[in-house]
Design a protein that fits this description.
Layout (H helix, E strand, L loop, with lengths): L4 E6 L5 E6 L4 E5 H21 L9 H9 L5 H36 L11 H15 L5 H23 E2 L1 E2 L1 H25 L2 H11 L8 H18 L2 H8 L3 H6 L4 H23 L5 H13 L7 H22 L3 H24 L1
Antiparallel strand pairs: 1-2, 2-3, 4-5
Length: 355
């Protein structure tokens, strides 16, 4: 068919979809996912604008709107909004989307809601790589921190994969091994910090709290380019990972290589975590919570629904960063507090289903 067709149709399980069919593409998009993404986009914009009113320089909501829409408005306010506060909001969106997508990849890969990079050690591996780069090698630019985070995350992923792989890869064994490796890397990080000068330790500890402060367009532009590239490369996982959740035999029968898919998923997931860790430090639990929240909002059968998952993560980080500014703490403190409660609830729910 040479022209696009867009129409809502009911499907067997009772959900309304929009069918998009062209000469090259034929797909169904759930209407509920579109509505959820639209609502989350409104939350992101509203929370982002509200957060730009918070700071040492008082700017009311109307002034923020005028500074964005009117080039002839007060130049001082425009400088505060565009050069200081807008990059922070955009970074919050980028970090939330990247962490949420990484969480969706790993939760789908392990077929377990606990299979996020926070739990299975890949986030700690990236953090350890940046700590070594900053404190031991004394390389503190974004490029070197990104390289350190990527190398640390990939080595950790390889170590966890090798230790957890016994003929078949069990998601439970992967999570348990990941927790053990994470604990070991955490101990090594602590040993490094107590072995260096107080100034270096304080610098690393401040970064380790996870903060979006002092980030500008100099870091945002390269981070956005890397994020766009990794996201585009990982889009095929949106189709292959849900199939892999049905088992290796089913995936192979449908023409999907389980080994190649797992390798690609781990590399892209670690790259997304490394991207955020290098820029903002470890922002914990977004990768754990966002895919599960998105799955419940969209009523999806898989945590790997890329677009809703990224919108959910972005909304979580933007709102968390606004709260962090109000109470004058790093955003990582807020996400840890919220994520800890969420993890406790998730574990209790998992236990209740098994008993």
């Amino acid at each position: 068919m040479s022209v696009d067709q867009h129409r809502s149709i009911p499907v067997d399980h009772g959900r309304v979809h929009i069918r998009i069919e062209t000469a090259r593409i034929a797909t169904l998009i759930p209407v509920r996912s579109i509505v959820v993404c639209a609502v989350l986009a409104v939350v992101i914009v509203a929370a982002g604008l509200a957060s730009m009113t918070i700071g040492a320089y008082d700017v009311d909501f109307g002034s923020v709107i005028r500074a964005i829409l009117d080039p002839s408005s007060d130049p001082d306010i425009r400088q505060v909004v565009f050069e200081w506060r807008l990059p922070r909001v955009l970074f919050a969106v980028l970090c939330g989307a990247a962490l949420a997508l990484a969480g969706g990849i790993f939760q789908s890969l392990t077929r377990n809601p606990l299979g996020s990079p926070d739990i299975i050690g890949f986030g700690i591996g990236a953090q350890f790589g940046v700590t070594v780069t900053m404190v031991v090698l004394e390389l503190n630019t974004y490029t070197f921190k990104a390289a350190g985070a990527l190398v640390g995350g990939l080595i950790t992923a390889l170590l966890v994969y090798v230790l957890a792989n016994k003929n078949t890869l069990s998601s439970f064994r992967l999570i348990i091994v990941g927790i053990g490796v994470s604990a070991g890397l955490g101990s090594l990080t602590s040993w490094i910090l107590i072995s260096v000068s107080v100034e270096k330790a304080m610098m690393a500890a401040t970064w380790g709290a996870g903060s979006l402060a002092s980030l500008g367009f100099d870091q945002l532009i390269p981070a956005s380019i890397v994020f766009a590239i990794v996201t585009l490369l990982s889009l095929p996982l949106n189709r292959t990972l849900p199939v892999l959740e049905m088992g290796d035999d089913a995936a192979t029968a449908l023409g999907i290589s389980p080994g190649r898919t797992r390798l690609a998923a781990m590399v892209f997931g670690v790259a997304l975590v490394a991207l955020v860790t290098a820029a903002a430090g470890p922002i914990s639990f977004i990768a754990l919570a966002a895919p599960q929240i998105s799955q419940r909002l969209t009523r999806s059968n898989t945590p790997m629904s890329a677009v809703p998952v990224m919108f959910t993560g972005a909304a979580l980080v933007v709102v968390s960063d606004g709260v962090a500014q109000l109470i004058a703490v790093p955003v990582g403190v807020v996400t840890v507090s919220i994520g800890g409660l969420y993890l406790a609830w998730l574990l209790a729910a998992q236990y209740a289903r098994r008993t």
